Amino acid sequence: MNDVFGYIAYGDNEVYHFGALLSALKLLHNCPGAKIIVATDRPEIFRPYPIETITITADQKELMSFGWRYHFGIKAASLIEILKRADRLIFMDSDHYPYIDPSRGFRQISPTRSFMRKCEGEHRLYPVLAGEGVKIGDYTLTGHEPMWQSGILGIHRANAGALTEAYSAMLAVRELTNTDAPEQFCIGVALSRNGLALSRHHLPVSDYNTRGKKAFASPRVLQFFEIHGDVPIAKQIRKAGWYRLWRSPTDLWRQRDRWSL
Fold first, then answer.
1. pTM for this model (two decimals)
2. What separation in angstroms does the CA of 92 have from each of 48, 144, 193, 248?
């Protein structure tokens, strides 16, 4: 079985790229020999490491984003490309990272079973889709389907067609709802129909995906490579395994005046 861990990193914010790289190094510390593929418009960042890359060109980004009308289309289309190189794929956003070996998660993936980060329930704005005739495959969206968060995704190659059907519906959902969530919404729906089962993940993975967490972790991501970026890769992997991105009680106290943690 060709089991792959995947990341996607594109755009001008270096934290996305180096966050994905640091997460991959943590993964290699906890799961030596893991096969990792990163779809990116900055392949030179990852090239020195035991990481495979899929280059996303400027023309591809424009095409994947429906002419820049929905930039998360780049993520969805890149997922399809990574899945072409895997039998089972565990994808993590670049602000997620494992703290112990997550490879047991591949056992949760089969042609009929997928997982995502969590179910967020019905989105209050999405009932506007009712009666609009937007389809995922042969299923017509009502807008009352549950929203699944896509920071983590476990999927079998047998469901590549479901991802393609989800991608085909995203622009219409985007234009009708004027939200950023069509990517995860459409993927969640596509992986929940025609006898497919979708559940919450059970991976040993942490994240820094809130404003307070990002304010602490993002500078530390860049600092790691400023300090360790020139040392041998084996040493970088060891250092990354124990490098802290979570906040201590003291860090939380220092952020006590923030409106969002």
1. 0.96
2. 21, 26, 23, 24
